[in-house]
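Researcher: Next entry in the queue.
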Amino acid sequence: MSANITGWSPDIERVFKEILFRFMEEIKCTRAALYLYGPDDRFLLATQYGFGRRDVLAIEHGLQDPMVQKVRDLKGVPAAFNEKQNLGPLTDYLKSAGNSRLLLVPLIAGEEIIGFIDARDKGRRRKFERADVANAKKIAAAMVEFAKRAGFVFSDENFEEAEEEVPAARPMTEIGTPRAPMLDESGLENVHDAALDAVLDHQVVAVAVTLTAVGEAATLVNMREGSTDFDRDALIRHQSSALVEAGSSAPDRASWKIDVRRVPTTIDPAPAPMIASAVLLENEDISTLTASVISGGGANAARATLTRLQTRAEDAREKSALRFSRRNLARRLLQPGSRTYPDLVAHSESVSRLAFAMAKELELGATRSEDAALAGLLHDIGMRELDYERLYRSSSPSGDDRVRYQKHPVVGEKILVGTGLDDVMAAVRHHHERWDGTGYPDRLAREDIPLLARLVHAAEVYDVLTVPGRYRPTVSPDRALEIIERGKGHQFDPKMVEVLAKVVQ
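Model: Structure for this entry, 505 residues:
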């Protein structure tokens, strides 16, 4: 069941349902419902697990309903209610539903309540514990982050401002995944490209972009050929001042690296150059992005260039955050499989890194390169549903075990249905196809096999051959490449073998 929520796509429901199910696994409750803020000041049921037709489960809650009032009282912090006397007006509601214990989890974006989780019935009639509350808070933060990146539209008028500061939603760092970077590699490239474009403007002599992080700074300067040199220390002083004015500390000059690139152009150098600097982005005291413009067009020209760079940087950060969120979601979907397949997460991460590097080498572009990374992360997600110990008692499963094993690409595809990741789904389904048409599940051959599937296949085999803990004896990287080379034109796309060799050597 899903609600017609502003910004809500039916394709997202499948993913939210998956996250909610994993939430229930962590908390070990038997029923849970996710509500999101929708039109007309109503919290609408987005998805649920465990509730049957006879259960009393509201499809929406108004601002004055007891459930929402209780959510507001929590000030953004999840709470467990194991005693009826603590439930107040909710007592009758839960009683009518046949429940006596409740874990209520607000979903907070900034200072706004954008939804909540209604979780009930701890397994084996146990009480909800402090550990459950802590886990719920972490997972809720990840859900909010995903909702934001998925395009969910939050109202600016949900509630009055809370009396106490509500903690902002954080990515999934607290459950063992990396913190989102301010800009990933693709995002930083995008900003540098914008700086290069700016230098081709007749009023701009040079543009410097500096990424400052953990006491270090690295600057790329795009400078028009034929222009006069400027003092390196002067540039650093100027950007240092911009950082200090923005309330950030400037790294020591000895740790400040600068790379100057000359840009060929037929445009004559602009007269009377002036320099202007600004901090474009900041990220929780971890890093800053600063830009400096040397312009002969006066202050207005410099400000216009900085504004264009600011817009490009903010757009790049949004895309970086989306990429990070999607990868974190993929990792979350893999977690259940780690219980029966101990190497699943580590193997998937390795294949993802290789696949991304191969996509970059192939110059597939930012979007397809990211799809390659996701395909690497998710290619074996179907293994979640299989008996790893049984299948991997030997290096070469046979009979019924082999048939079961060969179903995992199809199972993986089904898990991802409704996510909107069509190219990734195709790669997951076909990553065991072979160039000569002898693979599975569909016996596709040559270019009929999706490009990302061919790429992931080569990356996966290399990882299996070279990393200890996989189901085969480990060989050296050189020996692995020799083995894969022998399969070129039979098992592997020759182009993918070539690219793999480039990125691992």
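Model: Residues 29 and 123 are 5 Å apart (CA to CA).
Researcher: Noted, moving on.
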